[in-house]
């Protein structure tokens, strides 16, 4: 089954099937809808091209199994589901525009039902539910399945947490580049005032049934949500790979559910791309009604995609909590757990519970659109502000889902490279939980200008300020850990230091937004955009890169190129800092968010030009990272030992890790971060450590 | 205590809890029809939920010590599975909590105009089904597979009754049947039927009962699977799937313990 040039045949099939799909789409446009001059870059041909080409690419790459089978089933399921609803509606006596919509071929209910069937078909097709189906029929299955050797195992269902962790991480990187590409497109549009190429005139720009400014809105919204999903996958990636190794488990507590949680995110990503071609949506990633109740059908694909990705997050979090509570090594008491495990637990508590609320809020809008249920429609006794409460109850804590693992990576790596004990271990552990819990009571600070009851403003202002306390604890600990240390600065440490600096900027630009009086002025300006990019880059992106550079040798047995790693850092950091400083600068002077064009009289042209150049700087640095990442897999310097001289258990055994982790179990006999203390020991490997006591 | 005595005391406990639940449901109904105190209704719902969570869902088993510390043993894995299921239920209860927030925000101290007798009837059906589920699970624990199958069958039938009661009658899913049944419950066609698009009360009602009915349906499927496997002679001492299906079924019941007063009893009729 292993072909010589699989990427080549994948690309060839992508072109052929893309052309076929394009033809089918144009044909449907002409024959069924009888359009005189079909739009060559309209939604119908584009949707079919996308569906056909993606499945064909994986067919060439991998053959008809694993991910390919999932994608093919998703395409077939989507079309069958949509046809089913169309048929039902025809039987109900509907005709004409109610059955087939000129711009999108299928009607909205048909697309939504089709997309849902498509997601379920993908999961069945990829084979992640096979064992459960057997159990339901009373057939037992072996605990583990053997994986194929080499790269092949990453494209079909594997139950090994290390494989799943890498699947998550690579998917996250793919989505980061998609989201980044979207950002580059609309950033270029903003480089000067006036419309550059996203033209408002439909005769000059009409791609995927959208005019230029509509396309701007869609790309801006998708940039937000695709980055968020990629961050969630990245978080799951690090946690999945690292946590079982850190606690000494052979796998996650529920390996099948672990695989399910990963694979359900793949059809979710396809739905996100579908929303781009099916008319897009112009609400931003927040999807507030009433606008989201009226946007094109792309809005529904977005809702369904987020809903599906949410399940990935929920089930992943459940698994992490169960693994940490039940599968720790002997002697690993709560206060001897690696600090990253604490961060993973704190993050998982939020993801397990709050995620349901964004799913619910999006479901309610979906049903409002499909069945006319008036949840958020004042004319029917509904309340649009209710949506914002439900939405932000997840979407604010979601920020902590992103940053807590990142902050955990900082605390985990800092003592390794400062060669000193972590300062205030207990305080750090508790501050993660503190941030998670306070995070549940701050959501309405996003709504100071929404027209919610005024008496809610001040309590939410104070609860928001409270977040600074546990966050401050972390900063003091980091500074104290660095103080007087023998600091080494290989690439992972550079990213850790960068993360601390950038997250500090994100942190101190937060309180102005929390103050009601100031926020009324800052709301919806580029100040906010600068603030949250600092927070997310400092809290997630920098630590994510640090984690990849740090644990890459563990996964591959090779290390990434140090020189190009440093180039990546020294190009990305100044570009990024200039970008966010510039955003905050023009934001304070009145540049509004989420607009495709601005008045030249504001004098922001040169500032925007600099911001665009900086954005491309970041893109180039990430491109360098990608090349380094894939090049080093085959050609990187061999690194099978304890590369970073770490005390952590996973580095005490040779890399890469064998399939079922530690061949000899370990027992925790000391404190985890006693770097530089003579005679101190964290773990001891012995055959008798297998029996566990909690 | 001998094995037999223990078994009969477990079954007796199930009966007692059911009687408490039934009496409290009648008190709820009485309060709603007379002086309608929201506080009392909430307190009673909380007490009922605690009873089910403790005595029918055995939440205390989460606290049990591991007798076998070997991670690959059935006992250890079962304890992990138990934790996983409870984590899932915590997650799921946030959906229902969100629906409750939606209902409070949109309807406040009013409730949709619904047939009270029918509401009491379907609630009773679901509570009785929980009683038989508990009985079936207890018998399974004592190795009585046949008793388990019989009781699960009764649970299934009652669950299906509840499901049809909501979807066919309350939703007017099959109008002719709905009108016939409603007439039996003393409805004379003077109430305008709720629809999803008729306004906030209709939207809240259909969304909440719909989400709950979806969970009932999945619970029924789960029960069918374990019953079918038990018939094949699958479970003996290792019957965690039975326990899981039972706990999930009781969870669906707990949700209804809160949704019933929220939709039928609390406050005045919404306009």
Write the layout of secondary structure elements.
The complex is a heterodimer of chains A (694) and B (271).
Chain A: H1 6-31, H2 43-62, H3 66-91, E1 100-101, E2 105-106, H4 108-126, H5 130-136, H6 161-190, H7 212-247, H8 255-263, H9 265-277, H10 298-326, H11 339-371, H12 384-418, H13 425-438, H14 457-466, H15 468-482, H16 491-508, H17 510-514, H18 516-522, H19 526-556, E3 558-559, H20 562-588, H21 605-635, E4 637-638, E5 666-668, E6 683-685
Chain B: H1 3-33, H2 38-56, H3 74-107, E1 110-111, H4 116-141, H5 145-170, H6 175-184, H7 200-231, H8 240-265, E2 268-269
Parallel strand pairs in B: 1-2
Helix pairs in contact in B: 1-2, 1-4, 2-8, 3-7, 3-8, 4-5, 4-8, 5-7, 7-8
Description:
With 694 residues, chain A is mainly α. Chain A is 64% helix and 2% strand. Chain A has helices spanning 6-31, 43-62, 66-91, 108-126, 130-136, 161-190, 212-247, 255-263, 265-277, 298-326, 339-371, 384-418, 425-438, 457-466, 468-482, 491-508, 510-514, 516-522, 526-556, 562-588, 605-635; strands at residues 100-101, 105-106, 558-559, 637-638, 666-668, 683-685. In chain A, the strands form three sheets. In chain A, strands 1-2 form a two-stranded antiparallel ribbon. In chain A, strands 3-4 form a two-stranded antiparallel sheet. The model of chain A has no long low-confidence stretch (mean pLDDT 92). With 271 residues, chain B is mainly alpha-helical. Chain B is 75% helix and 1% strand. Chain B has helices spanning 3-33, 38-56, 74-107, 116-141, 145-170, 175-184, 200-231, 240-265; strands spanning 110-111, 268-269. The chains are: A mainly alpha (694), B mainly alpha (271). Chain A binds chain B through residues 135-138, 143, 250, 253-254, 257, 314, 318-319, 321-322, 325-327, 352-357, 359-361, 364, 367-368, 371-375, 380-383, 386, 389-390, 393, 690-694, and chain B through 66, 69-72, 76, 79-80, 83-84, 87-88, 90-92, 94-95, 98-99, 101-102, 105-106, 196-204, 206-207, 225, 228-229, 232, 234, 241.
